[in-house]
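Lecture notes, continued. The same structure-token format from the folding unit now serves as the input rather than the output. Read the line below as a description of shape only.
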């Protein structure tokens, strides 16, 4: 599976609430390129930095060896939870 783009909620919601086009629009019509990607060996702080610059709630995680091969996604809420948990442990 390869990452070729992301679908942002505002575009999706515009289509989903217009019954005249919901069956005509495909994922490729809504997908836009993204520079916000993570590699599995990057620290959570890198994800945090990306989320500060992005409005998206998810960032794809891809391999370095196979560019754009999707391994999973990191959600904004996951990063925030991890950072809060780490902060509490260090107190």
């Amino acid at each position: 599976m390869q990452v070729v783009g992301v679908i942002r909620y505002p575009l999706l919601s515009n289509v989903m609430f217009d019954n005249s086009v919901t069956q005509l629009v495909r994922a490729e019509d809504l997908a836009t390129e993204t520079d916000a990607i993570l590699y599995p060996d990057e620290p959570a702080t890198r994800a945090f930095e990306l989320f500060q610059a992005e409005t998206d709630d998810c960032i794809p995680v891809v391999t370095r060896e196979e560019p754009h091969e999707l391994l999973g996604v990191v959600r904004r809420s996951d990063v925030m939870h991890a950072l809060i948990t780490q902060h509490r442990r260090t107190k």
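Point for the exam: The first strand starts at residue 58 and ends at 62.
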